[in-house]
Here is the input.
Amino acid sequence: MKDKLAALDIGNQVRKLRNKRELTLQDLANLSGLSKPNLSQIENNLVTPPIATLLKISTALGVPIGHFFQETDQESSIVVVRKEDRYGVAKGQHISHIGYQYEPLAYSKMDKFMEPFIVHMEEREPDAIVYNNHLGEEFLYVLEGKLEFRCGDTIVVLEEGDSLYFDSVVPHGYRGIGGPAKTLVTIYRPG
Here is the structure.
């Protein structure tokens, strides 16, 4: 799994796309709303971006988020990703600050509006929640464990079998409660 993730080289892919579009790091920062130092860390593979950050980068660069998970340029109207072919992203000592690991479930489908993921959320304190926001909507279904969702002043506790649908433009964050939580998350990004 680690070898597959390393082979994707997300940071290098971001740099190549940015250079191909003749954008400076500051241009990409302006387009994505992300800081130049954060983008530099991503391009140098010092950090793996959270889903929301990768969505902002993909939108700014004019590619679907699935572009970063492609090993080859395949396109099909039907995509099957076998359990053994999935790989996790955003787990490790350099990126534990985001509090979750995500596994893209339909990464080989390039032209799509929805991005499904399995997300493993760590148990953490409320003040350690990392908040994200991005254009679109999200659906979350709790497969295992218990989690807390925060959005503005709203706090919702979800348990196994519970689901949540929300406008993801509003800053939001999650944390596992009493241990890690495993969820199915689908992000809709308008075209």
Notes: The longest helix spans residues 10-20.
